[in-house]
């Protein structure tokens, strides 16, 4: 579309390209993000994008960096209250990631440790080290937290709320509920406690797991745990 007299187009920049890609993924999903589709949304030709992102992987890395950049940073003196600061940081990450439904998939498929990724890991690492954790314990604590530092937890089965799985033909036989009394007991108890729920409360489960992990980490810190002895003293 031709521009009128005196009308100037905002110049492209890496920041503008990445934020436009995030907005596109937010509204249309990650699969909709292509160089051509992104160029159309910005009103430029696809080749113009390559001055700012080298390829699709670079674009996705940058989109993840934009999201991570929105994670709240713990304030001064956070290491003196390390447990609360770690909890706030991780729950802040969860809030940010859940605001972008595509972000978990993008984070899980990234293989490059960008400055944004390393920066978030460094901030959490410093909360532990600043509280007097040994480098040894901090190393293993970060492994223990795993994907939870990004605000999501590894589940046995990833179910999409509100979207029942299509019925598929089974070749392994139909399960008989009577063969799984423990699972049925847990399911019945959960339904009784939350009769209106359509599935597990993922936020509750995330908070529960995080609190249990942080309790265990605090215990290891108090006991001066060391990986060479693996001794835990109450």
Report on this model:
- With 234 residues, the chain is mostly helical.
- It has a domain at 77-158 and 183-234: Tetracycline Repressor, domain 2.
- It is 53% helix and 0% strand.
- The protein is built from 10 helices and no strands.
- It has helices at residues 14-28, 35-42, 46-49, 56-68, 82-98, 103-109, 115-130, 135-145, 181-193, 202-222.
- α8 (135-145) packs antiparallel against α10.
- The mean pLDDT is 86.
- One of its GO terms (molecular function) is DNA-binding transcription factor activity.
- Residues 11-71 form the HTH tetR-type domain.
- It holds the Pfam family TetR_C_1.
Give the secondary structure arrangement, pairings included.
Blueprint lengths: L13 H15 L6 H8 L3 H4 L6 H13 L13 H17 L4 H7 L5 H16 L4 H11 L35 H13 L8 H21 L12
Encode the helix/strand succession as letters: HHHHHHHHHH
Instruction: Provide the low-confidence segments as ranges.
Output: none
- Please identify, by name, the CATH architecture of one domain: Orthogonal Bundle
Spatial gap, N to C terminus: 72 Å
Helix content: 40-55%
- Computed over alpha carbons, the radius of gyration is 23 Å
Shape: globular
Quick overview of this protein structure:
With 234 residues, the chain is an all-alpha fold.
Name some characteristics of this structure.
single chain; Tetracycline Repressor, domain 2; 234 residues; 10 helices; mainly alpha
């Amino acid at each position: 579309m031709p521009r009128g007299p005196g009308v100037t187009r905002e110049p492209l920049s890496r920041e503008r390209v990445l934020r436009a890609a995030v907005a596109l993924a937010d509204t249309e999903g990650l699969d909709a993000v292509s160089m051509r589709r992104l160029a159309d949304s910005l009103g430029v030709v696809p080749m113009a994008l390559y001055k700012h992102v080298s390829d699709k992987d670079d674009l996705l890395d940058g989109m993840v960096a934009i999201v991570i950049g929105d994670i709240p940073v713990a304030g001064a003196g956070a290491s003196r209250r390390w447990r609360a600061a770690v909890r706030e940081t991780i729950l802040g990450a969860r809030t940010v990631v859940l605001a972008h439904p595509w972000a978990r998939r993008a984070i899980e498929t990234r293989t490059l440790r960008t400055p944004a990724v390393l920066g978030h890991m460094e901030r959490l690492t410093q909360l532990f080290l600043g509280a007097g954790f040994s480098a040894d314990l901090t190393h293993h604590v970060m492994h223990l937290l795993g994907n939870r530092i990004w605000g999501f937890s590894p589940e046995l089965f990833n179910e999409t709320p509100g979207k029942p799985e299509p019925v598929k033909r089974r070749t392994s036989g139909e399960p008989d509920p009577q063969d799984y009394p423990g699972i049925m007991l847990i399911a019945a108890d959960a339904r009784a406690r939350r009769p209106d729920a359509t599935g597990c409360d993922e936020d509750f489960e995330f908070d529960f797991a995080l609190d249990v992990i942080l309790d265990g980490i605090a215990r290891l810190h108090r006991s001066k745990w060391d990986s060479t002895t693996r001794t835990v003293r109450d």
